[in-house]
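User: Teach me something about this protein's shape.
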Amino acid sequence: MKEANVRYTKAPNGSYSIRGYDAEDREFRFFVRDQFGNFSDTLTGTWLPIYERRLDITKFKEVILPGDVPFGWNVYPIPNLWNGTMWHSADKYDGMPMWFTFDMGVVAQLSRISMWQRPNEWLYLQNNVRKFEVWGIATTPPSDGSWTGWQNWWSTRSLNHRDYR
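Assistant: First, the predicted structure itself:
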């Protein structure tokens, strides 16, 4: 067995994903090594990796439901979330939460998403997302904008370099 996927962090705890393996039972071994060269006991187990493939973004489409936050400034619409440019919500003066809806065009089990922060002086500031949830529904969502039938897939937060000091 070879050493792979080495992670270094100052975080007191956390979880990590190991990717790129076929969806077949595989033995994994884990251990922790500190900066002084001390090793923990090795945890060994057999796990079934999740099959992953990138979703076809040509199937994605904007859906606007009552209660969705509008996009900002007409130059940052929802499709910018997946087309490699920038999306920006309109300013919301009545507080949080805010949400938006889009259709992925396929029922899928999401294993990860990428979310890029606004660059330069806006990094982790102002309207950049800190805490967020991902909700999904396998059928057409209710047209009244209600949460009936939706399932919460993730509740998480963005981490930045200050989280590891």
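Now, about its shape. The chain has no helices and six strands. The beta strands are 26-30, 43-47, 61-63, 101-103, 131-136, 151-157. If you'd like, I can walk through any region in more detail.
User: That's plenty for now, thanks!
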